[in-house]
């Protein structure tokens, strides 16, 4: 049974309130963060400028000329109480397939170039992460990473970067990796990285400190809105969505890239209603049920 | 139109910022020294958010192709209009063919050009501010280039009356190489030891040359973490936390010898211990501090932070009432 920790609130300077649900990563903290921030967005309160769900926390930016910070704090505490009831936590989510060329030769070039930043990995992040998680067989590792959907817990870092946390996996089985101690100056766009307990797809070329394990064939950010899935939003990810990684070969990778280029690629998407109560009660059975026909 | 004859070192279009998309990883962007920028708009009777130019270290040369009123604010610069010295903080009328040259910026980092009616360049996600991290096209994603033409809106009613007026002395910001910054402690400061907090507050910090609109980096003191295991999901170093949304102004401690303070192009979230937030009024001062400037931190309560904010707001209102007089 999910137990929701008590949220700790903190004023940050004169424009923000930070709400820490838990210090450690717990999926229930994230369910609560998304649910509260969705609710706040719907209420459309004057003076609230940014509503930002985090992995186990959330952040509000407000205009103190428009809303009293102390009134706002009271208000947040009230909503926080209400959203500590699991039957209140439901999301309109989408399951989205992300085809990934694991252990690819493109991110390999990047790792080799920056291997001086973490000599212990020998320029091969994939094998480093695989071994750190107790795997000796590449296919077994890929299968472990791609068999369960990742819950999109929050976005940040660069436009469209989404953190994903695996659903239905015991903490000691979650694939984890340390971050580079000094970040790379370059990461290829669409690279798939693991840092802490999270997997991300880098939306564009950027700096980065997550271990690279593959390359997505499809974009996750498109300000030019060239593909139909981006017509309503530049960002593929939405907190509360589920991303399912599907291993593909190099040949398939280039076929999909070609379709993306021709703007004919259609993402595989299934809309679902995600119920925290059902997830709590049925666990992996509930996930299989959601994934049915996908 | 503004015709960019020379682009300067790093000139960009900025307004008051892009809001509502920070949770998707889009930084607010907007003028780095918001106070000087706002005063520019206030001096022309523009709404506060109207877009203008932000010029860094060395300004551009611009030919005007419209009759309008402009004002320069921010860091002191050697500016001329048609070869004659043009003072900052004082609206001036310009006609087609007039050439503005903003030379070297002597103290401080950013000088601002505001134009009556504002720039009419394209908007993205509700703002005209350029942001290099966002992958936007055209002037929304890059600095100005030689040969750019930037469209202008029509000047606003009554703006000619502002020509020659001056900002009262008391409202002018100071540009110094020694700064006192106020911060409200908190966020994950429980991961900093008592000794670490002393190191933060009692030592003088130096702004590193690797500082930009994304963040300023500081060295000089030492902030020790508490000795305890990093929480599940954070990675495994004592400076790691489960990634949080960072506030702009957040004081991040990525290792015990460095501070990172996020500015308006700051990346939305990350997984390093964060020990507090610099108050919004002081972020303008910080943005204007040249590399190698010295910084001292002062912890304030949130009530003190609101008080300092109100004092600045009153100064802006004072300028506004001066402008609105007949």
A few lines on this structure:
The complex is a heterodimer of chains A (294) and B (326). Chain A is α+β, with helices and mostly antiparallel strands and 294 residues long. Chain A is 29% helix and 28% strand.
Order of helices and strands of chain A: EEHEEHEHHHEEEEEEEEHEHH
Number of strands of chain B: 20
The CA-CA distance between the termini of chain A, in Å, is 28 Å
> What is the overall pLDDT average of chain A?
94
Q: Please describe the biggest sheet of chain A, giving its number of strands, its sense, and whether it closes into a barrel.
A: 8 strands, mixed
Quaternary organisation: heterodimer
Strand % of chain A is: 25-35%
What shape does the CA trace of chain B take? Answer: elongated
Q: Which two protein chains have the largest interface (Cβ within 8 Å of the partner's Cβ), and how many residues from each?
A: A-B, 58 and 55 residues
Could you estimate the helical fraction of the residues of chain A in percent? 25-40%
